[in-house]
Design brief:
This protein folds into two domains: 108 residues, Immunoglobulins (Immunoglobulin-like, Sandwich); 91 residues. The chain has 245 residues and is of the alpha+beta class. It has three helices and eleven strands, in the order αβββββββββββαα. Helix content is 46%, strand content 23%. Strand 6 and strand 7 form a beta hairpin. The strands form three sheets. A six-stranded mixed β-sheet has the order 2-11-10-5-6-7, with no helix packed on it. A three-stranded antiparallel β-sheet has the order 3-9-8, with no helix packed on it. A two-stranded antiparallel sheet has the order 1-4. The longest helix has 67 residues.
């Protein structure tokens, strides 16, 4: 007959073996339970823009989430928190970071100094962890300067076009005015010549009518011609008998 203690010890050994196997399986599942998903590993932004460092994770229990910033100047801790509890934000990023329960953070008013690597670490209560990296490139706003230059050049071109048009109109008006003035001067010269010959003929006829010697009247006629030609020269820049073409 088999002793009773022998069967009970065998059952206890089997139970302990199953318990150890289950514990190892649980530990194995827990160690592989942290998964991290990063939809966009590289983000391009401009100065004064708000950007979202988006991630998502799955794990057992409530993990601890930590974000760090790595650049040429070293490593800097940004924020650390557990979902459902207040976040511990570093002094350098106060009022510039907003946390989300899925592990994502949002940075407000980024600058050139924010360019670099952002590392997230998700750690379970049992010690297993997973990390990921997001690269952020921040550039200056150049399109506003280009827009200002384009507007300035367009305005300058419009002003130049208006000035050229005004110069062309003034040139045409001056040309027409000079042409009209030349025709007027030619007409005045013809009128003066007509008056000169009229007075000359008048004095000659008067001399014959008075049956006097025509010499004094001829002298008076020539004097009148000289006077009519000389008087316009007293006016500056005005000679009706000689017109420039």
């Amino acid at each position: 007959m088999r002793p009773v203690w022998c069967g009970s010890s065998k059952t206890r050994a089997i139970s302990l073996g199953l318990f150890a196997l289950c514990l190892a399986a649980v530990r194995c599942l827990q160690s592989q339970g942290v998964s991290l998903y990063i939809p966009q590993s590289t983000i391009n932004a401009t100065v004064e823009e708000d950007i979202l460092l988006s991630v998502d994770y799955t794990c057992h229990g409530v993990p601890t989430i930590e974000w760090k910033y790595t650049s040429n100047w070293g490593v800097q801790k940004i924020v650390e928190w557990k979902p459902g509890t207040p976040a511990n934000i570093s002094q350098s990023h106060k009022d510039r970071v907003c946390t989300f329960d899925n592990g994502s953070i949002q940075l407000f008013r980024v600058g050139m100094r924010d360019s670099g690597y952002y590392v997230i670490t998700v750690t379970e209560s049992l010690g297993s962890s997973q990390f990921g990296t997001i690269v952020l490139h921040v550039s200056e706003i150049l399109y506003e300067d280009l827009h200002f230059v384009a507007v300035f050049l367009a305005l300058l071109g419009a002003v130049a076009a208006v000035l050229i048009s005004l110069m062309w109109v003034c040139n045409r008006c001056a040309y027409k005015f000079q042409r009209k003035r030349r025709h007027k001067l030619k007409g005045n010269a013809l009128d003066n010549q007509f008056m000169v010959f009229f007075f000359f003929f008048f004095f000659v006829v008067l001399g014959f009518e008075l049956k006097a010697t025509p010499c004094p009247f001829l002298v008076m006629g020539f004097f009148e011609i000289g006077l009519m030609n000389y008087l316009p020269r007293l006016t500056p820049n005005h000679n009706p008998l000689i017109s420039t073409s």
